[in-house]
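R.M. (postdoc): so does anyone remember the format we settled on? I'll just put the structure tokens first.
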């Protein structure tokens, strides 16, 4: 078990928090450091994550392990076409013995909600997540109830299913801070998985211990908020978002929510790498997970099999980053 991260008089170092989560989850996972980094960034900036991948690549396991290592209460919801919004949020139950209605809270009332196969739920049920993800509260029979803090949704979807699925509308996709793609493992990683589970077939989320707790997460968020973002970096973010709207293969580009995700996410990434200021590489590293699910391609681009990933790569290549002058990026000298 890794050392437990708890708040001290000096706060919580986000890099220490991330190292503890990564070390503990890697007792089970193999080759998932990049995804764990983005999950940690999303947690630190109050974001949500959409994970896409074919069956069997440990999407749900990754989310569950991350929740367990970070000390958060988690629930897993298997989304199906017959699931109702009330099955997510909860409802009022009449108790005959008392003659009164009693509130039964749904699985959305958790620190980390794993929404499995979100594209199998109907649009009505998918939309029930919107208020929770955006406003961090839900309304049940006219009563507005706050969700726990921290609160995070990690949804998964299978890209190869074509029948019985409901593609997420643009407004729903935009609620996710990042979209991550989990590919099939490289041969060496798959061999490591084979050896690890042959040695211990019972490996799973229960094999991981909490190494962080919600109080530490809340303190670490304050550390992220203090990271400096220079004016050249802000202009670089604006240039990237503007390029996503002006690209010839794009019908609708990124929203202002993406602009905010770039700035906040870059601050969190800088903190994970032990820096008090953002550099262009922090922004570049977030371009794919922030933009790829937000772009609506033009008809010609879709017909020519142009991918969103290719468009984002074009944007990052074409937009010139600011010069890496440490004095300019790190902000004014302290008085």
């Amino acid at each position: 078990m890794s050392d437990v991260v708890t708040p001290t008089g000096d706060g919580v170092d986000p890099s220490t928090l991330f190292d503890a989560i990564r070390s503990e989850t890697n007792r089970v996972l193999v080759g998932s450091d990049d995804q764990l980094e983005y999950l940690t960034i999303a947690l630190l900036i109050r974001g949500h994550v959409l994970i896409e991948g074919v069956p069997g690549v440990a999407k749900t396991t990754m989310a569950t392990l991350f929740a367990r290592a970070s000390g958060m209460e988690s629930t897993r919801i298997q989304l199906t076409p017959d699931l109702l919004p009330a099955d997510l949020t909860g409802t009022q139950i009449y108790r005959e013995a008392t003659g009164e209605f009693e509130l039964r809270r749904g699985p959305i009332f958790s620190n980390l909600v794993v929404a499995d196969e979100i594209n199998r739920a109907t649009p009505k049920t998918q939309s029930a997540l919107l208020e929770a993800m955006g406003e961090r509260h839900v309304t049940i029979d006219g009563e507005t109830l706050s969700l726990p803090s921290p609160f995070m949704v990690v949804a998964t979807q299978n890209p190869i299913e074509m029948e019985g699925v409901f593609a997420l509308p643009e407004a729903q996709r935009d609620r996710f801070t990042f979209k991550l793609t989990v590919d099939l493992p490289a041969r060496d990683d798959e061999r490591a998985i084979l050896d690890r589970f042959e040695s211990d077939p019972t490996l799973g989320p229960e094999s991981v211990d909490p190494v962080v707790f919600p109080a530490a997460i809340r303190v670490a968020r304050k550390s992220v908020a203090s990271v400096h973002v220079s004016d050249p970096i802000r202009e670089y973010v604006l240039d990237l978002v503007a390029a996503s709207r002006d690209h010839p293969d794009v019908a609708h580009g990124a929203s202002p929510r993406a602009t905010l995700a770039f700035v906040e996410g870059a601050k969190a990434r800088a903190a994970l790498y032990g820096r008090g200021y953002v550099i262009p590489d922090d922004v570049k590293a977030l371009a794919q997970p922030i933009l790829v699910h937000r772009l609506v391609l033009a008809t010609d681009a879709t017909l020519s099999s142009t991918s969103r990933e290719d468009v984002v790569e074009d944007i990052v290549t074409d937009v010139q980053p600011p010069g890496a002058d440490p004095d300019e990026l790190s902000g004014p000298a302290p008085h």
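R.M.: ...and that's the designed sequence above, right after the tokens. Also worth knowing: The chain has a mean pLDDT of 90. The chain has two domains: 14-197+211-220, 228-323.
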